[in-house]
Amino acid sequence: MEAAKSIFSYRKYWAHRFGTAPFLPTTRAEMDALGWDSCDIIIVTGDAYVDHPSFGMAVIGRVLEAQGFRVGILTQPDWTSAEAFRALGKPNLFFGITGGNMDSMVNRYTSDRRLRHNDSYTPNDEGGKRPDRAVIVYSQRCREAYKDAPIILGGIEASLRRVAHYDYWSEKVRRSVLMDAKADILFYGNAERALIDFVHRVGKGEAVNQITDLRGTVVLRDALPDGWQELDVSSIDDESVSIPRSEGEAPAAVRLPSYEQVKEDPVLYSHTSRIIHLESNPGNARPLIQRHGDKEVWVNPPPIPLTTPEMDWVYGLPYARAPHPSYCGARIPAWEMIRFSVNIMRGCFGGCSFCSITEHEGRVIQNRSHESILKEVEDIRDKVPGFTGVISDLGGPTANMYRLACKDDETQKVCRRLSCVYPDICKNLNTNHDSLVELYRKARELPGVKKILVASGLRYDLAVRSPTYVKELVTHHVGGYLKIAPEHTEEGPLSKMMKPGIGSYDRFKQMFERFSREAGKEQYLIPYFIAAHPGTSDEDMMNLALWLKRNGFRADQVQAFLPSPMSLSTAMYHGERNPLKPVRRTGTEVVATAKGLRQRRLHKAFLRYHDAENWPLLREALKAMGRSDLIGPGKKHLVPAWQPAGTGKSGGEGARTGRKHKDQTFLTTHAGQGRRPDGDGPAPASASGAPARSGPSRSGPSRSGPVRSGAPRSGMPRKGKP
């Protein structure tokens, strides 16, 4: 991996003399109060402005401010005209456009494409405050407001749409969002390093359209640059399915099939998806080129991960750690969820095929130091109103990947594995949890801190490698429930998800229960599952339902797999081929996929086998499957033969999806708990000790049950995304 220029090596821009703003300005009046006549950069975001390191616009805004630039924020502007985009005037350098911490389409629609009426990133949880495909719409309005102002894109929505991508909501392959937004450059992944370099070059007068060499960016070109060689993988056949090696000293770029080709050929789309993911290691990735009409979309290699000192600097900037005062104390659910939590790292090397973390943040874990993390805990204790002594989460994308990495840097540089833990944990992966255990112990000892909880999901197949870690976690850092993600019980769907077998879950469960008993605590695991993932048959879902019943789980709320842009699972869904292996025209594994609404609802119904509203659908399906033996009154049966009066007409949980309703109590029943009321009975304690309610999550808003969507894990506002 090439050496990266340190983010500390730049001389501050001249405007640093204005100092640090208590909040980045959102109005002209706030600019006047700071003595600004203009903004150098204006960030446009689909989220409410919360000045906190879990919100992307705050991270990027504070990073740019620390480099000496004047940064304004247009938060959830009225997109029906260009007027709201003139509120802060024309930026001296550029507009930075982001849809927000969540993809605007995932935020707005359920996995059944039904409209949501709430938005956890908006004051008072109000829906409809951001447009569909927000990045495109905001870019259009900025261009209308100031025709010649440069526009750059960033954040999860742009990052996952950097090349031609399957769009679940329109059921077609769309162009790179860089083309549709008519922007000048797109930043993908964690963009601090590239953005700092970019903004200083622009500040010195370099033209935006001349900056084409930055890692982690996507630009448009007319043709392959002089001196480059092209490695063509734009077609597939039975003989040639791998990426050719470059020859000689000339730099090489990998030519993907064009937008026009993948638009018409789902199998070629699956092949393209595989190539993109194989070219994702910063140590060996080459530029990707994809023809769109008469333009080349040029994807530079992924950004070099931040070092620990650089991560500490980003998270140590002077955040106000609060929503902007203009909201007057309005409830912002996403802020409430992370208000007392601390993000200790970025990235995930799990490589789950349905998850967006790898595509956005990469597989290399970027860690903060103990000192930086403990300092943030102390800041929460001393500065955040309402702190009661409980840190609600000390985690990240995966709670127990902190400081886990390849044992050898040279090996990591050449690795092209899609996952470090599938099909087995790589022998070159360091799985030592000692540093994390030490961090937990230091955090617990801080004065004024009563409890440190771990609410982020953890990778249990890694955890069982360290019984000391599991004991430490279970004894001190679980507040009644711990969420983990088996995703399924059957080998068919698990092999498509790149998840371990259910045996790993059983081993972790045994350790969890043993250490809970030794600690004298009654604690439960919250297992997450995905309905209707590619490769899942009706029989697979039936077997999962039987497993749930045997183990005493009754899930309150479920969702089906949502094909997010760019994921490998989405390539399976659209192309019906397995991109985890080389894709050929013939002989390639065909992946059966639940696409029809009826079958997707059936898969969800299996996960809510206990809901009488689902029994007619399940009885019909079981009879068609030749499993009438599962219909009856006994413990061995899945659903009864009788139907309660007035039930069986609303379609179970699926009929409630998308309807605006009050916060739901978490009604999942666990083995040993006994049955609990379906009405307004008290909810069990959440990790923080308070009643657990539905709210923002990694997979989207309003997910309260342990069986969750396969939507991209981008909902939690924990990572700084531009």
Automatic annotation (TrEMBL):
Cofactors (names): [4Fe-4S] cluster
InterPro entries: Elp3/MiaA/NifB-like_rSAM (IPR006638), Methylthiotransferase_CS (IPR020612), rSAM (IPR007197), rSAM_horseshoe (IPR023404), rSAM_sf (IPR058240), UPF0313 (IPR022946), UPF0313_C (IPR024560), UPF0313_N (IPR013704)
Domain Radical SAM core, chain residue ranges per copy: 334-600
Signal peptide: none
Listed Low complexity bias regions: 680-715
Binding site for [4Fe-4S] cluster: C348, C352, C355
Entry keyword annotation includes Metal-binding: yes
Coiled-coil boundaries: none
Keywords noted in UniProt: 4Fe-4S, Iron, Iron-sulfur, Metal-binding, S-adenosyl-L-methionine
MF terms in GO: 4 iron, 4 sulfur cluster binding; catalytic activity; iron ion binding
Location of region: Disordered: 630-722
Pfam families: DUF3362, Radical_SAM, Radical_SAM_N
Cofactor note (record): Binds 1 [4Fe-4S] cluster. The cluster is coordinated with 3 cysteines and an exchangeable S-adenosyl-L-methionine.
Similarity field: Belongs to the UPF0313 family.
PANTHER family found in the cross-reference section: UPF0313 PROTEIN YGIQ
Protein name per UniProt: Uncharacterized radical SAM protein YgiQ
